[in-house]
């Protein structure tokens, strides 16, 4: 029997009890109403008729209508004959009344018989009223007795129902709650022991089956997998780097204590929330979510340091965003399953790098003074007024001059790199003519190019608009590109210098016809201290020129790069916005 049927039967039973009590009450009330109606209709009315007839006899001499009233009352009484003896008395009164009307109206004997009969008629109805009143009282007593008995029995049944039925519902639920709590505490040996054939019984059997399956599951290899997952979660919590995990819908799945501290939000308030909603009130998370949709593991050269105030000081963090991809069963192509954002604290490395930069800047600055003094001394040695030099001495002075120039160039590049690394690039942006830049750069390298018999082929400078640039920095970049082209070009060759307008930018291109760059070196040419080996296996320069050029161009809002598909040689370009 189902719980629904049991509850329905219980409600039907309650309805039957109410119907029984109401029906009994209505039955006895009808009985009392019938007894009362019988007294009023049968006997009280007859007493009224008797009284009217007695009054008519008393006023027969004074009231001319007295006999007529007597006749009307007698007729009505003859109709209302309800008690035994009333009919005989009414017939006797009718006979005597006929004699009285046809004879002497004051016949005392006839009047006496009529009066005697009226008294008997009244006495019969009075006795009937007392008798029927006793019947009504007995009916009321019987009704009270039956109602008390029926009500008591129904009360006892309902009281037992009230005491037992809630327990029938609540006890299995309480037992089920206790079982669920035990299973939640990983006590998979817990079982429900109540027996019934209703839904509670089915629920108990389903719960026991579930607990049995969980008990089996606890001892399978999957439990080991979950244990390993917990191990990984623990390792993430213990890592020194800040780690934030997002699913494919950008909901935050896990945050370790370091990331929680950096974000300034408790872990419990982050996990499970939609990351863009949190980012509305959190500047750091908003920065971390930028360009997240297309994010991949960021290359080292593209990472931007984040300054975050942490543990009482300004700290530097390196952001790495990894796309999590999974391959579903039956599918070949992996799909994106979320992102992992790693914040690596590199404050110590940054501080060391800053110390290195300051050291390089200081040493480079200090070296420029003695190098300048050496060059001044070399110039004095060339002066014929202090004495002529023989050929061997001139050769030695030339070597010293070349080494001094080389040292001066190196210290200049180191100073520029120190300026770049310290983030203190000072720019004076103004409108600059592209033709002036090219003219100044080619003039600066005119001597070096002529020594190798290299010619500059300039094109496309006609009617170009002015560009927004720092003239010193832009010229330095162009000189550096031309210097590299001259150094890697064969003797008696040409270096092409071209300029053209691309939309709202002007593009400068420097191309040489040397051996070019190997494919494995092309992606690294703008890295600091990287020097591509030459044809003889040797490499020249410090490896800083292109890195400094990239920083200068980007600081002016431009682009710099290496063109693809250029053979022979290589072609470098940079673009700056039109003023």
UniProtKB/TrEMBL annotation:
Keyword Phosphoprotein: yes
MF terms (GO), sorted A to Z: ATP binding
Classification via PROSITE patterns: HAMP, HIS_KIN, PAS
Domain HAMP, first and last residues per copy: 167-219
Pfam families: HAMP, HATPase_c, HisKA, PAS
Keyword Phosphoprotein: yes
PAS domain mapped to chain residues: 228-273
Organism, as annotated: Larkinella insperata
Compartments in which it is found: Membrane
Domain Histidine kinase: 362-579
Entry keywords, A to Z: ATP-binding, Kinase, Membrane, Nucleotide-binding, Phosphoprotein, Transferase, Transmembrane, Transmembrane helix, Two-component regulatory system
Membrane topology note: Multi-pass membrane protein
E.C. number: 2.7.13.3
Chief subcellular location: membrane
Catalytic activity: ATP + protein L-histidine = ADP + protein N-phospho-L-histidine
Protein's recorded name: histidine kinase
Transmembrane segments: 143-165
Origin: domain of life: Bacteria
């Amino acid at each position: 029997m189902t719980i629904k049927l049991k509850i329905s039967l219980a409600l039907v039973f309650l309805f039957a009890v109410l119907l029984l009590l109401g029906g009994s009450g209505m039955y006895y009330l009808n009985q009392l109403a019938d007894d009362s109606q019988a007294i009023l209709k049968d006997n009280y009315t007859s007493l009224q008729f008797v009284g009217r007839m007695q009054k008519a006899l008393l006023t027969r001499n004074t009231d001319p209508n007295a006999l007529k009233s007597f006749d009307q009352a007698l007729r009505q009484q003859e109709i209302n004959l309800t008690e035994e003896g009333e009919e005989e008395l009414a017939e006797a009164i009718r006979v005597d009344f006929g004699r009285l009307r046809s004879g002497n109206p004051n016949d005392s004997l006839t009047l006496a018989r009529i009066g005697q009969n009226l008294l008997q008629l009244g006495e019969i109805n009075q006795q009937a009223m007392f008798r029927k009143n006793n019947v009504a009282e007995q009916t009321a007593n019987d009704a009270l007795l039956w109602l008390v008995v029926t009500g008591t029995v129904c009360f006892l049944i309902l009281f037992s129902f009230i005491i037992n039925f809630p327990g029938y519902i609540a006890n299995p639920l309480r037992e089920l709650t206790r079982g669920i709590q035990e299973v939640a505490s990983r006590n998979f040996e817990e079982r429900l022991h109540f027996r019934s054939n209703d839904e509670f019984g089915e629920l108990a059997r389903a719960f026991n089956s579930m607990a049995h399956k969980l008990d089996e599951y606890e001892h399978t290899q999957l439990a080991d997998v979950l244990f390993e997952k917990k191990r990984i979660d623990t390792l993430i919590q213990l890592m020194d780097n800040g780690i934030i995990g997002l699913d494919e819908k950008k909901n935050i799945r896990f945050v370790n204590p370091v990331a929680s501290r950096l974000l300034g939000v408790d872990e419990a308030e982050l996990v499970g929330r939609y990351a863009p909603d949190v980012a509305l009130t959190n500047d750091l998370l908003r920065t971390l979510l930028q360009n997240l949709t297309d994010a991949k593991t960021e290359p080292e050269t593209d990472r931007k340091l984040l300054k975050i105030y942490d543990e009482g000081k300004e700290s530097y963090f390196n952001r790495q965003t990894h796309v999590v991809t999974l391959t579903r069963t039956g599918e070949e192509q992996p799909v994106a399953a979320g992102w992992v954002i790693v914040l690596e604290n590199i404050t110590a490395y940054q501080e060391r790098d800053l110390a290195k930069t300051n050291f390089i800047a200081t040493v480079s600055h200090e070296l420029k003074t003695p190098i300048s003094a050496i060059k001044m001394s070399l110039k004095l040695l060339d002066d014929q007024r202090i004495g002529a030099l023989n050929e061997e001495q001139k050769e030695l002075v030339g070597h010293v001059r070349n080494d001094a120039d080389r040292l001066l160039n190196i210290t200049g590049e180191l100073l520029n790199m120190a300026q770049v690394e310290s983030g203190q690039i000072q720019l004076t942006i103004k409108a600059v003519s592209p033709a002036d830049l090219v003219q100044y750069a080619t003039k600066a390298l005119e001597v070096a190019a002529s020594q190798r018999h290299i010619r500059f082929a300039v094109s496309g400078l006609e009617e170009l608009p002015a560009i927004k640039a720092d003239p010193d920095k832009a010229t330095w970049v162009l000189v550096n590109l031309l210097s590299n082209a001259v150094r890697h070009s064969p003797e008696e060759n040409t270096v092409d210098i071209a300029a053209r307008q691309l939309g709202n930018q002007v593009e400068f291109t420097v191309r040489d016809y040397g051996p070019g760059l190997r494919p494995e070196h092309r992606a690294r040419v703008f890295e600091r201290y990287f020097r591509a080996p030459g044809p003889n296996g040797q490499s020249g320069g410090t490896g800083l020129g292109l890195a400094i050029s990239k920083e200068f161009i980007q600081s002016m809002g431009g682009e710099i790069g290496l063109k693809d598909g250029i053979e022979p040689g290589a072609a470098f370009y940079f673009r700056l916005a039109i003023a």
